[in-house]
Design brief:
It is built from 5 helices and no strands. The longest helix has 13 residues. It is mainly α.
Length: 123
C-alpha cells in the first residue's frame, strides 16, 4: 500500500524509527498537533497498515480523578443496573464536598518518564 500523503509518510517513518513511542512524544518529535497525529494514526491503522494503537493509564490515579463513580463495565459481564433516582417528595441528603484536585504529577507521573505506568514508582 502506497502512502499518498507526505505527512503520513513522515509520521510512519518516525514511528518506524522509534518502534514504540507515546502519542504525545511522537507529536512533539514531529512538531505536530497531538490530535492530528492521533487521527492520522487511527486512519492509517483502519486502512490496513500493521499498527497497534493503545492507551495506558495509572488505574488508581484515574479512579481517584473520576471519583466514586459506578464501576466500569468489564467485557464478558453484564452491565450493572443503575438505581432509579429518588422521587421528588423524598428529602435529598447533603452532598459531600468535592475533594481538592490531586497533584497532577502524582497521577500522571513526571514529564518524559513512563516508569510510573509499569508500577515501578518508588515514592
Amino acid at each position: 500500500m502506497a502512502v499518498p500523503d507526505p505527512v503520513d509518510a513522515r509520521l510512519l517513518g518516525a514511528l518506524a524509527d522509534h518502534g514504540r513511542i507515546g502519542l504525545v512524544d511522537l507529536a512533539a518529535w514531529l512538531g505536530m498537533d497531538q490530535r492530528d497525529v492521533a487521527v492520522r494514526l487511527v486512519n492509517l491503522a483502519m486502512s490496513g497498515l500493521p499498527l497497534r494503537l493503545g492507551a495506558e493509564c495509572d488505574q488508581r490515579g484515574l479512579r481517584a480523578f473520576l471519583g466514586a463513580g459506578p464501576p466500569p463495565h468489564r467485557p464478558g459481564t453484564p452491565p450493572q443496573a443503575h438505581p432509579a433516582p429518588p422521587s421528588p417528595v423524598q428529602p435529598q441528603p447533603a452532598q459531600p464536598p468535592v475533594p481538592a484536585a490531586p497533584d497532577p504529577s502524582r497521577i500522571w507521573g513526571p514529564p518524559q518518564d513512563a516508569g510510573w505506568t509499569r508500577g515501578n514508582r518508588t515514592d
